[in-house]
């Protein structure tokens, strides 16, 4: 899957102001990136426990969880080489705000959760690609190497959502993408990997 497909799916590009935030705060970028990989693995594992009857979901989420944990290990290794300590930081508003609109009844709850997973993976892929040209050679190569797996995760989540729904999900996807656009473009209180632009980052 090409980056063009990701760009066509997402409602907007990451603002240049966010890229400037990221380049000025690379330690924080790496710490939160590590957190995002860990959370992505946790989400996939939780889905495996909750929906044990879906064989395709089990297989795709198992692979996804392994890859996300591998990425977590790679980020931690890069941080260690740069003497950056891994520490707990607050989560961005991004995922929590998207999940506020998840349906409470099944199977729509699962469909919505999978759609949000697709959006998060697509945005991660877009941001890796946007950052890579501006980073040092090690980080640039690493972020570029993540594009293939992130785009596959996006496709897996979206195809699973379509399968579970058994119907067209374009309206529901559009609903969440509209909210995602607001979160990406509006000013944020603090810089994170999935934050909006922060006008004054300490």
Helices and strands, with pairings:
Layout: H1 3-9, H2 16-24, H3 26-50, H4 55-81, H5 94-99, H6 108-131, H7 137-145, H8 147-165, H9 170-185
Helix pairs in contact: 1-6, 3-4, 4-8, 6-8, 6-9
Describe the structure.
By secondary structure, the protein is an all-alpha fold. The protein has a single domain (3-88, 103-185), classed as Ferritin (Up-down Bundle), CATH 1.20.1260. Helix content is 70%, strand content 0%. The protein has nine helices and no strands. It has helices at 3-9, 16-24, 26-50, 55-81, 94-99, 108-131, 137-145, 147-165, 170-185. Helix 1 (3-9) packs across helix 6 (108-131), helix 6 packs antiparallel against helix 8 and helix 6 crosses helix 9 (170-185). It starts with a helix and ends in a 17-residue tail after the last helix.
Task: Briefly say what this structure is.
Helix content is 70%, strand content 0%. By secondary structure, the protein is mostly helical.
SS summary, helix count: 9
Strand residues, percent: under 5%
CATH architecture assignment: Up-down Bundle
Overall outline: globular
Question: What's the CATH class, please?
Answer: Mainly Alpha
What integer is the average pLDDT?
96
Q: Give the number of domains.
A: 1
Distance between the termini: 37 Å
Q: What's the β-strand tally? A: 0
CATH-assigned homologous superfamily: Ferritin, core subunit, four-helix bundle
Keywords:
Ferritin, 70% helix, 0% strand
């Amino acid at each position: 899957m090409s980056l063009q497909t990701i760009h066509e799916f997402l409602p907007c590009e990451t603002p240049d102001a966010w890229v400037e935030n990221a380049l000025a705060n690379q330690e924080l970028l790496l710490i939160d990136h590590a957190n995002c990989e860990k959370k992505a693995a946790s989400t996939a594992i939780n889905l495996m426990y909750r929906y044990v009857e879906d064989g395709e979901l089990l297989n795709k989420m198992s692979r996804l969880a392994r890859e996300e944990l591998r990425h977590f290990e790679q980020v931690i290794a890069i941080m260690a080489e740069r003497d950056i300590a891994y520490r707990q930081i607050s989560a961005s508003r991004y995922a929590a705000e998207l999940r506020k609109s998840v349906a409470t009844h099944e199977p729509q709850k699962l469909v919505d959760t999978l759609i949000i997973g697709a959006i998060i993976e697509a945005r991660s892929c877009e941001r890796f690609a946007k950052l890579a040209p501006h980073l040092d050679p090690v980080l640039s190569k690493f972020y570029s190497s993540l594009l293939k797996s992130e785009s596959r995760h996006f496709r897996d989540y979206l195809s699973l959502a379509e399968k579970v729904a058994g119907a067209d999900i374009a309206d529901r996807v559009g609903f969440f993408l509209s909210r995602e656009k607001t979160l990406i473009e509006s000013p944020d209180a603090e810089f994170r990997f999935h934050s909006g632009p922060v006008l004054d980052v300490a």
